[in-house]
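Minutes, methods subgroup
Present: GH (chair), OT, SY

1. OT presented the first of two proteins processed in the latest run. Sequence and structure tokens recorded below as shown on screen.
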Amino acid sequence: MDLSDIFESASRSKIFADRSLLRPDYVPLELPHREKMITSLGRILSPALVGDRPSNVFVYGLTGTGKTAVTRYVTSALADHASKMKTPVPVSVKYINTRENDTSYRVLAEMASGIGIRVPFTGLSVAEVRARLVGALRSITTIYVVVLDEIDAMISRIGDPFLYQITRMNEEIQPSQMSIIGITNDIRLADNLDPRVKSSLNDEQVFFPQYQANELQDILAERAKLAFLPGALEPDVIPFCAAIGAREHGDARRSLDLLRRAGEIAEIRGANRVQRQDVEEARAALENDTIIDSIKSLTLDSRVLLLVLANAKLRGKDKLTSGELYASYENIITNGLKDNALTERRLADLVKSLEMSNLITANLVSEGRGGRTKHISLQIDPSRVIQSLADDPRLGDLAGSVGRDVLAHHEDCGARRWIL
């Protein structure tokens, strides 16, 4: 079959009506089983409709529990309603994924773009970008709602002070006003913030519980009506995808990915219907893809932690104490990767985050008179870590060397030793 045949067959799918409706960035018109969260967030943001600044909000919940979809749904509805009022209220909304925009420069530049200010990708100081943003907000009157998705990643990379600076910006931008919505998987994030930041945020909180199997089934069924052609799914496909998602922390995103990939597998084999075996095959493929993608998306410090644990496991040491992990991490970081290693407190936060992602386990154990310490273990095959970091521009060479007793990293000035 030549390419023209392949492309022609793809345009005449026997499975999909519109597969894009199963992708994570699609925001449906209805969000089953999230009515309570929609109402809560809507009430928090509603003061904007009378020209008052809404409270800042932290949106919590595990991956795939609908946080981003609900937030985008509510903020979009807010802006739309504000524009259609008898006396329109100026409301602006900007969504920023802070894992992708991972520097203070990029976050501020994205905030500026939300009110029509173009900032070059590089070339200015952070202070200049901030000044342009403040100046632009002073020159207009708007309620500016800024959504910082994966805000825990931003805090880990940039630190508390940057978040503090953003929240204090209201003192400089009158007549405009700004509210922050932070979305995070880390339910303990606020507890670990600097007290000044917590005070400045003065936040409301909206918590998203895990989906149950029956709720996931409803979500998949609604989406499948639009995404698949009539009769394209065997009756047991949706319940099976929902059951898998429920076992994996009620992750709707995972269930939708699974359903889409199963449809693509059925399509490739030329079938008219998606079967359970397609879901099984999709599950195996996604498991590998998800782990690799999740590792690649982590902060540099988190990737180093996983590399240390992978190296230990390959050498037959299944667990490291907190002290051993920090010593190895600090040695790598301070040998040319960054100016400064994170503090042990910050590293403990990263360990919690990795544990929530099921990449590691961290168990507190008693060591008698020596007190208590954490034993930290890698929960995935170490080869997955190596594979994920093989093309990493900063850790690729080191990842390729894992497994040796002493790792070597060569620079122009000579060989440098990396001890794990």
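2. SY then presented the second protein from the same run.
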Amino acid sequence: MKNFGVPSAWFSLAIVSCLLVLSGCLSPITLTRAVIAYDEAITESQSKQLLVNIARAQHHQPIHFTGVSNVAATFDFRFTAGATPALTGDASRTILPVIGGSVAENPTISIAP
């Protein structure tokens, strides 16, 4: 009797291994995008401050610059894998894989007036 609904242990191990390998590939890509995004945001902020200070100087008001001294970001990659019985059909024989994941970024930005 063949059981087509139950994945083998090797198949499950292959899926988990692929997920672990892919999580290592996500980190450099995410880091590169984050560095570029933070750099663009800081550059835009500095440009706007310069324009505001030019207007302040024209009206004989004191100029003021605020700079970003440090950006520290942590990344959290989570992958989950499991199996659950099917909700339809012969539930005692059919097992469905359950795969999930999430990515979170937690930046800490230091601003120096």
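Chair's summary of item 2: The mean pLDDT is 79.
Next meeting: continue with the remaining queue.
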